[in-house]
Input
Amino acid sequence: MHIGCHLSSTGGFLAMGETALSIGADTFQFFTRNPRGGAAKPFDKADAEALNAFMDAHAFAPILAHAPYTLNACAADPSLRQYAQDVMKDDLFRMDHFPHAMYNFHPGSHVKQGVEVGVELISLHLNNILHKDLKTKVLLETMAGKGSEVGRTFEELRAIIDRVELDEKIGVCLDTCHVFDGGYDIVNRLDDVLDEFDKVIGLRRLCAIHLNDSKNPMGSHKDRHEVIGGGFIGLDALVDVVNHPSLKGLPFYLETPNELPGYAAEIALMRSKER
Ligand code: FE
Ligand code: FE
Ligand code: ZN
Output
């Protein structure tokens, strides 16, 4: 099982690899810069290469870079859309230094413009930032549907992908808390939900799983993560997720409310439940 958690990037790239290994993980997720936006630290190429060597030595699964969640590719204000484009272009330029990495982002919030306009602007955004030499796969995250978030349904993600020219560069990251919050019953009908994902988007697009429990019942659209087994999804359903034949080879990233010891315990727990 490939599993890790979200880690702070303040100590640098290699330090995240070492932290991951120390808590029993073989991958991790990190923010490319302050999640609330702003300038990124200057890129430390030697540190990036040290992490790559470390990942090779310890047989890590691909790591997942997460874009700042304040970026909005479908903002109504053109200067905010431009900002999202500039930041993601810069992030992807940096990501080229990591041969085993993916880049995940929240599609955006349509802020009263409607889902159709949102979908149109997000695909335009992707067509502006993707280029044919890009090595890093860009993942659209499934969203909880909080406020005017686009990507609450598989159909919305499909509609975005359909409009992207270099669509082979696009994948999907399924967040268990978000899809459950979005109204998909992964507790009682995991097979049906994955069938639907396959029919609408295609399971070959699914590249990563955010493994979270949820503080709220199915369909709440609140996006509040809970520790594994402490929420409305529950341990049994999450064990089914990591063992599902369509999912078990994918990397799982915990984004549960934990410090490192809590993450270590959840990683050990999930590993102990591998069938
Ligand atoms: Fe996210
Ligand atoms: Fe997530
Ligand atoms: Zn979330």
Q: What stands out?
A: The radius of gyration is 18 Å. The pocket of fe (iii) ion (ligand 2) is lined by residues 141, 175, 210, 255 (CB under 6 Å). DSSP finds nine helices and twelve strands in the chain.
